[in-house]
């Protein structure tokens, strides 16, 4: 709809107010899919700041409250949004999920699915750098595994940081099968560099 051009003319606080007025954080999931489709058609596209605000308003509450696998509609909306605005989505949504220590397996699985199927390669690296900024935990290991499954070549500095992080945390993961799989994957993919 032509009215959506207003999204490009709002200040961040106006955009947050508009999202609140339209109740975008609680809109139905079929509408969410349609709304994300409209966002893709916007010309010019959203600014980084506007896309980050919309990522937070549209998805953050839904994803953090998941107690079962996300619906088909929610994944379609996320995939649609990611196709044009994956970096703001990573900065807002993925960072929040990774930093929530109490969040369960559904959020981690969703991040893995985004990494494996939706995010652009430079955003996959961004996810890995976000993970490596935090203390490594059992919850984060599948995310790193998903990154390695998707990323053919890591920049040397990111690979060095990954290897150092894995070495540093080895004693804490002595009995972890996921950790063993991750180390094996790193040694297989980056044998010469390691």
From TrEMBL:
Ranges for domain Fanconi Anaemia group E protein C-terminal: 1-193
GO annotations of cellular component type: Fanconi anaemia nuclear complex
Highest rank taxon of the organism: Eukaryota
Gene3D superfamilies in the cross-refs: 1.25.40.480
GO annotation, biological process: interstrand cross-link repair
TM spans (from-to): none
InterPro entries attached to this UniProt entry: FANCE, Fanconi_anaemia_gr_E_prot_C
The name this protein goes by in its record: FANCE protein
Originating organism: Scytalopus superciliaris
Chain's gene name: Fance
